[in-house]
Write a structure and sequence with these properties.
The chain is mainly alpha-helical and 178 residues long. It has one domain.
Length: 178
C-alpha cells in the first residue's frame, strides 16, 4: 500500500507493468500496491498525460489475475447490488474515499478539468470496480468500502502470488499511462 508521494518506478517496474497491460505503460509515477512477491499490482499514473490529456485514474489496477477476477465480478452483475449499499454510513464512507482520492491526485498535480472528479463512479455511483479495487489496494483496508467489498468478493487475494515471470519482458517504454 502506498499513497503519494511515490518512490519513482524502476525500469523493471515499468517493464513489468507494460507486460501486464500488454502495451507500453505511459506516465507511470509510482507503484501504489505490490503483490507479496514484489511485482506491481496497482500503478500510479500522472494526472495529466504527456500529451496534455487529463487522466483522472491515479490508481490503475494492472495485475492480470486481479484484473481478471474483478472483470468476472463485474460480469456477474454485482455493481447494482453494491450501488444499492450507498446509503447511510456506507455512503458517508464512500464520499470520504472520493475526497481522499482527489486529495491524493491533487498532491501530485492539480488538473482543473478534473475538479471534483475521482474514479469508479465515486461518490454517488459504482461504475468501475477496477478503479475502486485499485484505490482500495493502494490506500489500504477501510478507506474505500466498495473497493474493499469488491476485493473480498472477487476470488483474488493480494496475499497470494499469481504473477508471471516479468523479467526480460521487453517492450516497455519509460515515462510511459497505465
Amino acid at each position: 500500500m502506498t499513497r503519494p508521494p511515490f518512490d519513482p518506478p524502476t525500469d523493471a517496474d515499468v517493464r513489468a507493468v507494460s507486460h501486464q497491460l500488454g502495451r507500453p505503460a505511459r506516465n507511470v509515477i509510482g507503484i501504489a500496491a505490490r503483490c507479496v512477491c514484489g511485482q506491481p499490482t496497482v500503478v500510479a499514473t500522472r494526472p495529466r498525460l504527456d500529451d496534455g490529456t487529463p487522466f483522472p485514474t491515479l490508481y490503475y489496477l494492472c495485475h492480470p489475475a486481479a484484473t481478471a477476477a474483478i472483470s468476472t465480478l463485474e460480469a456477474t452483475g454485482v455493481m447494482p447490488e453494491l450501488a444499492a449499499l450507498l446509503a447511510g454510513q456506507m455512503a458517508e464512507d464512500y464520499a470520504r474515499a472520493h475526497e481522499q482520492y482527489i486529495a491524493d491526485r491533487e498532491s501530485i498535480e492539480v488538473v482543473p478539468e478534473l475538479a471534483g472528479v475521482s474514479a469508479g463512479g465515486m461518490p454517488t455511483r459504482v461504475k468501475c470496480l477496477h478503479a475502486l479495487a485499485g484505490h482500495a489496494l493502494a490506500a489500504g483496508p477501510g478507506v474505500n468500502p466498495i473497493g474493499d467489498l469488491a476485493l473480498e468478493r472477487c476470488g483474488w487475494s493480494p496475499s497470494v502470488c499469481e504473477c508471471a515471470d516479468y523479467e526480460g519482458a521487453g517492450g516497455a517504454s519509460e515515462g510511459a499511462t497505465a
